[in-house]
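re: that complex we talked abt at group meeting.

here r the seqs, copy pasted straight from the sheet so there may be weird spacing, ignore it
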Amino acid sequence: GAVVSQHPSRVICKSGTSVKIECRSLDFQATTMFWYRQFPKQSLMLMATSNEGSKATYEQGVEKDKFLINHASLTLSTLTVTSAHPEDSSFYICSASRDRNYGYTFGSGTRLTVV
Amino acid sequence: AQKVTQAQTEISVVEKEDVTLDCVYETRDTTYYLFWYKQPPSGELVFLIRRNSFDEQNEISGRYSWNFQKSTSSFNFTITASQVVDSAVYFCALIVMEYGNKLVFGAGTILRVKS
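got the structure back, here u go
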């Protein structure tokens, strides 16, 4: 149980375009989802906390207008990278929490390349 | 402040050697959870273990074992008789209840097991 599906796994887009990444909890309802960014050979940095039915909470330094997060249902959160630039190229990974006692389940990640 | 330190950036061992990955954490809270995750080259984070702050019992799961010592704020991970498939990046992480249930990751330790 506790499977999180993340799509797409890889995406290449042109500078200036927007990219949407989906994170779905397949067999449980996730009241909270988290979005992380990971640069090569670095750790995971929390970008934002997504709560179903309310606005996401962004970490300091993360541009909320650039990284739009929507958590419209208990099983789906989306991250849209707007007006992407090459410096946005990174590995983005989501996680979902059923509640803290179950720990966190991570998606398989999305490797974004902006050309 | 909440912080996780993995001082070992990279470790190389020969197959069948035992290897210990160190993790030191900082928190002023008395209620917290510690985790270890494995990230193979594919990128997906694989959950290995969760331990709460009130349970200091060491745990063994096959070739894996964990040593939790609150006195030294450490949660070390040992792989016995390492195998090439153990090659990955290993992250230690911390959740502090007062910090909004956010996972704080260490920098990660790259483990290379050579045949």
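couple things i noticed - The mean pLDDT of chain A is 91. DSSP finds no helices and eleven strands in chain A.
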